[in-house]
Design brief:
The protein has helices spanning 9-18, 40-58, 68-81, 90-100, 112-117, 119-127, 141-146, 153-162, 164-168, 185-192, 202-214, 236-247; strands spanning 2-3, 24-28, 63-64, 86-87, 105-110, 132-137, 173-176, 197-200, 228-232, 255-256. By secondary structure, the protein is of the alpha/beta class. The protein is globular and about 50 Å long. The structure holds D-glutamic acid (DGL).
């Protein structure tokens, strides 16, 4: 599993909770985050490089792109080019979002790169649901999470400004279309109001992973002890310090990926 940094840990948490007997290798590309402002072809290159590392060095049997931006840039490409199943977070998130709305007015917030890719518009269109979609980019949110700041006054002020379009649209369900955003859920919920359901792709993605493994001969036996390893392309010590605060004690230790 990989992400530009800590965001994919929200997906890692859901996968570990649902499939505790499976091993997990997580790469946070903190040396090159944020992906959001970068061109998609550059993010695709990063995704290919990390995938190669996970396949060559860790022999992974399934890959989760736990980053909307990287999934928007590289999901189809990787699905066509590697031999293991590759799963993203965009379709699972859209499924949850559509089942959460009652009014049909739905919102997605994501990084600038994900919004510009059009991936969410396409994924919603593909469902054929009769919904009214508003999408807003939230530049700056990822940087707050990467600093470990999830509820300061500053992030609240930024949220008031960035969430204005989805508030004005009167959405009743809002998809956190960046895996970092669940760490800002309290702030986002304060701004959106309690009547708006916040949806994250993490749980639905974990269900997809379970379904994919159980439909194959690759699932680990339920009685086995699993290992969870964390790698960062940035400073591994600060990755485990901030990551541990966000994720919990399982992330007491992280290592640096060899190309960093
Ligand atoms: N967690 C990534 C996502 O889901 C954040 C991208 C970034 O680094 O800007 O899009």
């Amino acid at each position: 599993m990989f992400d530009s940094g800590f965001g994919g840990l929200t997906v890692a948490r859901a996968v570990i909770d649902l499939l505790p007997h499976e091993d997990l290798v997580y790469v946070g590309d903190t040396g090159r985050y944020p992906y959001g402002p970068r061109p998609l072809h550059e993010v695709r290159m990063f995704a290919q490089e990390i995938t190669k590392y996970l396949l060559d060095e860790h022999d992974v049997k399934l890959l989760v792109i736990a980053c909307n931006n990287a999934a928007a840039a590289a999901l189809e490409d990787l699905q066509a080019s590697v031999d293991v199943p590759v799963m993203g977070v965009i379709e699972p998130g859209v499924r949850s979002l559509i089942s959460a709305t009652t009014t049909g007015r739905i919102g997605v917030i994501a990084t600038a790169g994900t919004v510009a890719s059009g991936a969410y518009q396409r994924a919603v269109d593909a469902t054929n649901a009769t919904v009214d979609l508003t999408i807003a980019a939230c530049p700056g949110f990822v940087e707050f999470v990467e600093r470990g700041d999830t509820d300061s006054d500053e992030v609240h002020v930024l949220a008031e400004r960035l969430l204005a379009p989805v508030r004005a649209a009167g959405v009743d369900a809002l998809l956190l279309g960046c895996t970092h955003y669940p760490y800002l859920a309290r702030t986002i919920s304060d701004v959106m109001g309690r009547d708006v359901v916040l949806v994250s792709s993490a749980d639905e993605t974990a269900f997809d992973v379970r379904e994919r493994l159980h439909g194959s001969d690759r699932a680990a036996p339920r009685d086995r002890e699993s290992t969870h390893c964390f790698f960062s392309s940035g400073d591994a010590v600060s990755f485990s310090a901030i990551g541990g605060r966000l994720f919990g004690p399982e992330l007491a230790h992280a290592e640096t990926v060899p190309w960093a």
